[in-house]
Design a protein that fits this description.
The chain has a single domain, classed as Heat Shock Protein 90, CATH 3.30.565.10. It contains 3 helices and 5 strands; from the N terminus they run βααββαββ. The longest helix has 24 residues, at 37-60. The protein is globular, with a radius of gyration of 15 Å. The N and C termini lie far apart (32 Å). It has helices at 18-32, 37-60, 107-112, and strands at 7-12, 67-77, 80-88, 115-121, 125-131. The protein is of the alpha+beta class. Strand 4 (115-121) and strand 5 (125-131) form a beta hairpin. It has a 5-stranded antiparallel β-sheet, covered by helices on one side. This is Anti-sigma regulatory factor (Ser/Thr protein kinase).
Length: 143
């Protein structure tokens, strides 16, 4: 698991249920970093949405490559922190016109995150990047 670090990196199989694996890695990590429960929930939902899109794309093209999920705590200024999440589905196919494949087009993730982008990288594949707005910490609500 990812405890004890400011980054979390793991692989998931492109199968239904991969979001449960992601939650098992990210959930305790978000708790360890004391992110507000509502903000942590939003991150987990957005990651699940992005993973579902990556898995659907992988299945549409008949692939079975592992999907890489990486997350990092970031300083977003003014003493606040946020997260970046990078999901790489290893596909070497170019993106469809408009940047996203068919499907839900990450609408849920887009509503929960400050920024969602999709691009191709040589030797990596399709990359879905999620960035949060500044996140609350449980200690911020003490008082």
């Amino acid at each position: 698991m990812c405890t004890g670090r400011d980054t979390c990196l793991f692989l998931v199989d492109p199968l239904p249920g991969a979001d449960r694996v992601a939650r098992a890695h990210l959930g305790p990590w978000l708790i360890e970093h004391a992110f507000d429960d509502d903000d942590a929930h939003d991150v987990l939902v957005a990651v699940s949405d992005a993973l579902a899109e990556a898995i659907a794309d992988e299945r549409r093209r008949g692939g079975a490559e592992m999907i890489q999920v990486g997350s990092a705590v970031e300083d977003v200024g003014d003493g606040t922190t946020g997260l970046s999440v990078r999901i790489v589905d290893q596909t070497t196919m170019p993106l469809s016109r408009g940047g996203l494949s068919a499907g839900r087009s990450l609408a849920l993730a887009g509503g929960l995150m400050e920024q969602v982008s999709v691009h191709s990288e040589a030797h990596a594949g399709r990359v879905i990047m999620l960035r949060t707005r500044p996140l609350g910490r449980r200690s911020d609500r003490a008082g």
